[in-house]
Amino acid sequence: MGTAKQTKISNTDLTEIILETLRGSEDGRTMKVRILRKHVLMSAYQSSETDVESDKLAKKQFKKTIQALEASQEKVLTLTEDGIVTLLPAKKNKKKSDKKKKRQKDLSSDDDRPEISDDSNRKHKKAKTDDVQIENNDNIDLKPPKGSDDEDHQDPIKNKPCDGNPTGCTRLFIGNLPFAVDDVALSSHFAPAETTHIKWITDKETGRFYGSAFVEMKNSRDAAMAVTTLNESQLMGRLIKINYAPARVGDVWPPTKEGKVVTGGQAGTAKGVKSMSEKPPECKKLFIGNLSYDIDDDAIYKFFAAVDAEIKAVRWLSHKETGDFKGCGFVEFWTTEACDKGATLNGKNLLGRPIRIDWTE
Fold first, then answer.
1. Residue 63's Cα: distance from chain center in Å?
2. If you write DSSP's letter for every residue of 138-206 in order, what string do you get?
3. Can you give the chain as a three-state secondary structure string?
4. Residue 24 and residue 29: Cα distance in Å, rounded?
5. Average pLDDT score over residue span 248-271
6. pLDDT at 227 over 90
7. Is the pLDDT assigned to residue 220 strictly greater than 90?
8. pLDDT in tens, 286-318
9. How would you class 283 by CB atoms within 10 Å of its CB: exposed for 0-12, middle for 13-18, buried for 19 or more?
10. Distance (Å, rounded) from C-alpha 41 to C-alpha 21?
């Protein structure tokens, strides 16, 4: 079986992880290139620091992606001779800026108009409120009609700046997530802050979960609560990273599919996962199938360690005649509680394949 090999991720996905990691730095834009590389590759491949530092192919891909971003027409980032990566601010849209200046000029010209009677002034102001957005009034419901396409995008109350969230951002990037996480586990961890959408970051070809996600919060205050109180908190044995991640221009957010809102699913879980049989009393052993032929003891131990399920022994099954690996085996745990935790990984992706798990005696 040999050593477990990493599944290469696309340059597009690696670029996204690089940018979100930079946005999550202390100042939101700069990091030392070695530290950035470590965090990006650990998040992308769900591997330890030792594994990513010894992976020459992954490091080479990271280097090429950084160079491509630096040489791109948009000039996304810079890398200094001292090894400092800096995320450059996005270029402003000149047309939008000119329109904004024109509106400000038109509004300011109102002050130069001659005085009119109080009655006429009141009528003028009443008519004007139909076209000008009302600001700084928490008692007025400014939400679009329920069910409209812009319901989540045009709510100034939802995105109102608050303590710990000066920009009113409601979109978060979550990194270093455990492989067994799902919608329920993540939403429960955020409570009482409320999540409305979860988008798991996975490989487009294999569906392999990268251990990170984008989350939309109910409002800016809930987002601030998550960032200020839950960043580096422990979820299923892992210290998760939480940072603000404003959607880029042109992004469809919250995520939609065929006109319907997508609220996420189970991270790294394949569709049509076969249900498990009835659990035997005091069960401490699981059958594991549909395994990659690159699997080894180290990979399976790490896989179950993600849910704090400590393995006692592993037995791989092989063909009697040829000795070839059958792609399945048995895992024994020290306790029935650990076995229960291990069973929650049924259908999760391991080395690019959804693993099949069932109880056994």
1. 23
2. TTS--PPPTT-TTTTTS-TTTT--BTTBTT---EEEEES--TT-BHHHHHHHHTTS-EEEEEEEE-TTT
3. CCCCCCCCCCHHHHHHHHHHHHHCCCCCCEEEHHHHHHHHHHHHHCCCHHHHHCCHHHHHHHHHHHHHHHHCCCCCEEECCCCEEEECCCCCCHHHHHHHHHHHHHHHHHHHCCCCCHHHHHHHHHHHCCCCCCCCCCCCCCCCCCCCCCCCCCCCCCCCCECCECCCCCEEEEECCCCCCEHHHHHHHHCCCCEEEEEEEECCCCCCEEEEEEEEECCHHHHHHHHHHHCCCEECCEECEEEECCCCCCCCCCCEECCEECCCCECCECCCCCCCCCCCCCCCEEEEECCCCCCCHHHHHHHHHCCCCCEEEEEEEECCCCCCEEEEEEEEECCHHHHHHHHCCCCEEECCEECEEEEEC
4. 8
5. 59
6. yes
7. yes
8. 999 888 888 999 999 999 998 899 999 999 998
9. middle
10. 11
- Retrieve residue 30's tokens: 């700069």
164 burial level (CB within 10 Å; 0-12, 13-18, 19+): middle
Q: Does residue 129 surpass a pLDDT of 90?
A: no
Of residues 245, 242, 190, 240, the one with CA closest to residue 218: 190
pLDDT tens digit sequence for 314-327: 999 988 888 888 88
Question: What does the block give as tokens for 268?
Answer: 């790294």
By the 8 A CB rule, do 169 and 223 touch?
A: yes
Give, for 28, the enclosing helix (H) or strand (E).
Answer: none
Residue 265 has pLDDT above 90, yes or no: no
Taking only the tens place, the pLDDT of each residue in 187-200 is: 889 999 999 998 88
Report in angstroms the alpha-carbon separations of 354 from 6, 268, 274: 15, 8, 11
At 44 the pLDDT is: 73
Give the position of tokens 């530290």: 35
What pLDDT is recorded for position 141? 37
Contact by Cβ (8 Å): 58, 19:
no
Q: What type of residue sits at position 196?
A: T
Dist. CA 234–CA 164, nearest whole Å = 21
